[in-house]
Amino acid sequence: MSVQLGKDPLNVVICGVGGQGNILASELLASALVEKGYYTTVGETYGASQRGGSVMSHVRISAQKQYSALIPRGEAHIIIGFEPIETLRVAREYASKITKVVFDPRPNYPLGVLIGEAVYPEIDAIAAELKYLCGSVQILEATRLAQEAGNAQAANILLMGALTAMPEIPLQAEDYVQVLNQRFKGEVYELNQTVFDLGFNSLAV
Question: For residue 116, what is the domain's CATH number?
Answer without folding.
Answer: 3.40.920.10
